Prior knowledge:
Strand 3 (98-102), helix 5 and strand 4 (122-126) form a beta-alpha-beta unit. The protein is built from 11 helices and 13 strands. 36% of the residues lie in helices and 15% in strands. Helix 2 runs antiparallel to helix 8 (264-280). The protein has 378 residues and is an alpha/beta fold. The strands form 3 sheets. The protein has a 7-stranded mixed sheet, with helices on both faces. A 4-stranded antiparallel sheet has the order 9-10-13-12, with helices on one face. It folds into 2 domains: 2-24 and 282-377, Aspartate Aminotransferase, domain 1, CATH 3.90.1150; 28-279, Type I PLP-dependent aspartate aminotransferase-like (Major domain) (Aspartate Aminotransferase, domain 2).
Amino acid sequence: xxxxxxxxxxxxxxxxxxxxxxxxxxxxxxxxxxxxxxxxxxxxxxxxxxxxxxxxxxxxxxxxxxxxxxxxxxxxxxxxxxxxxxxxxxxxxxxxxxxxxxxxxxxxxxxxxxxxxxxxxxxxxxxxxxxxxxxxxxxxxxxxxxxxxxxxxxxxxxxxxxxxxxxxxxxxxxxxxxxxxxxxxxxxxxxxxxxxxxxxxxxxxxxxxxxxxxxxxxxxxxxxxxxxxxxxxxxxxxxxxxxxxxxxxxxxxxxxxxxxxxxxxxxxxxxxxxxxxxxxxxxxxxxxxxxxxxxxxxxxxxxxxxxxxxxxxxxxxxxxxxxxxxxxxxxxxxxxxxxxxxxxxxxxxxxxxxxxxxxxxxxxxxxxxxxxxxxxxx
Length: 378
């Protein structure tokens, strides 16, 4: 573990508590991208076939991380929004169909569904402020519900959903189940098969610690043909390296959703980052993050005036702690923490802290001391 943690070379005076936004790269990702750039600048595409082996390895890593049944269910897209759009405009909607989501979603997971209203599709919003938010989602479903889409962890409050409960309901009621797992993968185990997910989407730049521009799109094999193709190009055909073939057909595997040239630079970076995550082990990472969340919550509870928004039940949280103060304006508190080089975010009516496994307890205690310090001054 010491060797693995030594790969992190963040600025000594920076307390990075913003992995729920854009995470820093580990050293091996930085080196992989540097080496790729050097290879390209020196050799052009001479080593392209070697680059393709990295791409294949990345697909296998993602399959392992989410326990997909086979690698053909894995597609590499640009971002979460593109993956959600592939789903939204691939489904054969009928006027009167409805989609159930929550009222806490990040814009990626509501704008795309709301854009379908012109097709006569209704979007229903469940209130998650409940002892059983899953029941609230399920209660909105009826015989016209075609899809239920939910973030595995809500970006602002840090609420973690019980995905299997939702997946079992969807499977039993012929409802497609879509999971936006961008706030989970890399921080907490996601099992696509165990939760009966039809789709899992996640960009690699948060908890997976990779660069922006490469995203996972998992589509369960049994529902693949339910999505029509709306993006066409050389790469999404079956015999994609036979450029002279005029009688093309859509690829039978997940490559059908990849219309053009891949982001090879991003692929090299994410592959390196995931090699670290798999080396450390997702269970170990999840345990370390939980310990750090406990430390933050305990510390915040001991500071008069602070109130924690994130659920305190370990089964209902992941790597996010959001809190507010009834003594200090949120923007003022955020500005103070920023002045102390605590990199966090304003989300959900409070301050969002999101450490990863490599964040030190010393850094967390220092951040807490700054929160306490400004409260004592007020």
